[in-house]
Amino acid sequence: MTTMGMLMNTKGQVTVPADIRNRHDWHPGDEFEFVEVDGEVVLRPLPVAETRGQRFVRGLSGRGTADMDKTTDELMEMLRGE
């Protein structure tokens, strides 16, 4: 078992040491859960089935429309107005 002392910042954030992140192949954007087991807190990665970003993109899918027949100038005029 590896033990290291880390400080929590004012936002409640704690940095996971690089050697632990590398050993477990953890990357920015990975999601985790905190679980209390026998009075101790355990950090566990969530399954990679679908990340928060993927859920966000899926939620946006089909919401936009494209005006492919307009020129760049026409689109800019449409966005900016007169």
From TrEMBL:
**Top-rank taxon:** Bacteria
Q: Where is the SpoVT-AbrB domain?
A: 3-48
Q: Which UniProt keywords apply?
A: DNA-binding
Q: Does the keyword DNA-binding apply?
A: yes
Protein name, per record = AbrB/MazE/SpoVT family DNA-binding domain-containing protein
- Sequence intervals crossing the membrane: none
The molecular function terms in GO held by this entry are: DNA binding
